[in-house]
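User: quick one, fold this
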Amino acid sequence: LALVLVAFVPFVPQWAGDWINSQTQGSAPEGAAQPLSRTVKILADSRGHFVLDAEINGKQVEMLLDTGATVVALPQSVARRAGLSLKKDDFTASATTANGTIPAAPVLLKQLRLGSIRLSEVEAMVLPDASLSKALLGMSALRRLERFDISGDTLVLVQ
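Assistant:
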């Protein structure tokens, strides 16, 4: 019996440590925030663009990844569909595009969802429909992620 006990003694600290860790993890208060890593992978389309289905304030929106866009940019019709009612007086800013300088309305998106990734209070600009055909996923959203990277034809977003 003494020989068996001596054989198991070296393993006791590891078992004790494992038991303590299991007790500590199980004792977190219910409802406490648990850090979760959320990952979304998007394949490039036939033109090499990364287009993803997103939700803005609960409304489906197709967005084009644009790392050159400082902020998320929305055509006015998309903003309206997402519940953002804008008047002519709201276009107090300007945006510089490949087609020149155009009027823009700064807004804050309550929710932006990219698959399992959820962002709130995202800075955006609304542009006239004639100057923007598709919503752009710009840096105001991307910089809030843990990371994003492109490898070959795959974009990976991680929150």
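User: anything notable?
Assistant: DSSP finds four helices and ten strands in the chain.
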